Amino acid sequence: MRSLRPAHRPLFSSPSSTLLFSAAALPPSVPVSREESEDSQDTPLTTTSFTTHGGGGRVARCLDFPLFDRLLKTHHSLRPLQQVHALLATGGLLRHPHLGSQLILAYANLGFLHCSRVVFEEFNGSNSLLWNTMARVYTKNGCSGEAVELYSCMRRGGIPANNYTYPFVLKACAFSPMVSVGKSVHCDVIKTGFESDVFVEAALVDMYSKCGEIPHGRKLFDGMLERDLVSWTAMITAYEQSEKPKESLLLFHQMQEEGFVADRVTSITVASAVAQLGDTRTARSLHGFIIRNSFLADVAVGNAVISMFAKCGDVKLARLVFDAMDERDGISWNSMLSGYAQNGHASEALALFDQMLFSGPEPNPVTLLVVVSACAHLGSLHLARQLHSFVISSNMEVNMMLWNAIMDMYAKCGDLDTAVGLFSVGLDGRRDVNSWNVMISGFGMHGRGREALKLFQDMQEEGVLPNHITFTSLLSACSHAGLIQEGKEAFNDMGSKFMIAPMAKHYVCVVDMLGRAGRLEEARDLIAQMPIGPNDAVWGALLGACRIHGNRELGEFAAKRLFHLEPGHSGYYVLMSNVYAASTKWDEVGKLRDTMKSRGLRKPAAFSVIEIGREVHGFHTADLCHPDHAEIYRKIESLVEEMKVAGYEPDVACVLHDVEEEDKAQILNLHSEKLAVAYGIMKVEAGRPIQVTKNLRICNDCHCAFKFLSQICGRRIVVRDANRFHHFSEGACSCRDYW
DNA sequence: ATAGGGTTAG
After folding, report:
1. Does the residue A654 lie in any domain?
2. Where is the signal peptide (predicted)?
3. Distance A267 CA to B5 C1' (A)
4. pLDDT per residue over A505-528, tens digit each?
5. Is residue A634 part of a domain?
6. Domain that includes residue A658, residue range
7. Span A260-284, pLDDT tens digits
8. Distance CA A380, CA A402 (A)
9. Is residue A256 within 8 Å of A290, Cβ to Cβ?
């Protein structure tokens, strides 16, 4: 416990000449005589010393209360403030609680809490104002422990706590959080009779909620005789923060029924609740309310609305709000950027980031985190390197999260070596679980399952405890590499050794792993044994396996459940129609196509991207938009002829339409990934690898063709598809045709 | 002379 007696060492080593007479910031009218201050040269500047020395009185006649009040209310830097402090002390005016409190606040505003504390101790009175101010300062600066300690000193010293004291202390308990302290403060509140003060009650409700005891807070809230907007908002926020958006909105409506009108703060909280709910209609109606009350002029409200729309999937509206803002801060930009990223609009995010660099605020680590993950999604290695060097040159403080995101970005943009390099260096030599997770999943998506397993072992040897994400990455790595036995062991260890209950996503990986390996019955049985009910992704994994192995019956079994669980997900219809097409059930293919049409669903268009230098070239199937398309098509034809000589045969089974065989071969040649790779062969410097990113799964025929091409052209071809990377080299693929 | 509720991120 820190002593509350006056500090033995004064704040200033020599209170006389140096400080008082270099007082450039003091108004010229302030008369201070040299003799006055030299009187006190050898005496520490404490309240006691100046009450015994008569000299202070003469100064006090000149330096009166209103002057200091004004002086303290103007913004100072530390030096002038110290001079004001010295003058106050010499004048004995520090004993005036109001001025003491102002001085404490002034120091705190400059971030010099220890100076605030010195003032407080110099004062050393029993006036609650000073104690309250000190507690307020601690709380505001996140020093909850000190605030609570001060409060307990207050109690022991018999200083009466009042209706102002409790909110400060309770806020400190809420911040840290300290329930047991909070509860004892609650007892004091009752003992001292402040339990029906609206301010104190709101603080109590907030404290309990932030300590995770929402029912307790709710009980208090329900028992309140008088509630105001703040207490309602505290309770609404409690539900919002604990991810119970429905309860939050219910309370919001009840509040409105009782005649309260939400203000800006309430709107922000409610917007966040709506964002969690993800319902566009509710979002629009709240937006209307906010507009009617002209709250959008407030940047924070605008920011909350942007992220609300973004989380409801309505990026266009989010952008509209963003564009309409008079004033934007860093959060506005970050919210919009992450809105794009969350909704898969990676290139929009990157374009907006460009604009931010040009005309917006300085990007911070959160900005980069969002942009880096957008780049990872996009798969542009060129951009990845630009972003990385931006981070390095900007001197921003790189945290572990951003560091991990950068490694992930490199892995997803095809440069696993750089990711490994970063990982082995670590961020100031440090790594966390997620660093390991990123690398395990990185190796996994590049088909290097053994190395993923090795990392998993290393991680345990270093004493890093794996989490559920680790196992998702590891199981998916096993699945991609066909390491069935190892995958099954990992899945078993997860529950028994690491006490992590398998979640749906883990089952998805294992079903995928078994299914890919052709063990369809085993996969089906695993689903049947799931303690948690199977979700759509689990059935989707099974259906995907049925597509690979042409199992129509089991496919229908899975599809039936999928169409029921996720009737609006086009991918599942496409998968099932692939199964039908493979067994030439063209009438069934047609029926599924009609179902999709009637539900307004469309198969996402295939799209492949290749970067050449700073240029990005995108291709759709049979694309005629590219300026060089004629040349590209001629190139493909000549390449196909060369490949045929080497033994390539078009895999017409990949064409999922019922057309003539000759046409099928034509269609195959126009696949987006072939266009992109052919263009790469034309334009990328000889010997350099060709890297293509496709939004869907690579097709079988293209996969086969690229193996031949890598041989014929003597260069590496890297394709990132929707699932993983394929590295083609010398006639073989890194996936060893297991994908 | 002093107070309670707030937005972005894996």
Report:
1. yes
2. none
3. 11
4. 999 999 999 999 999 999 999 999
5. yes
6. 607-733
7. 999 999 999 999 999 999 999 999 9
8. 18
9. no
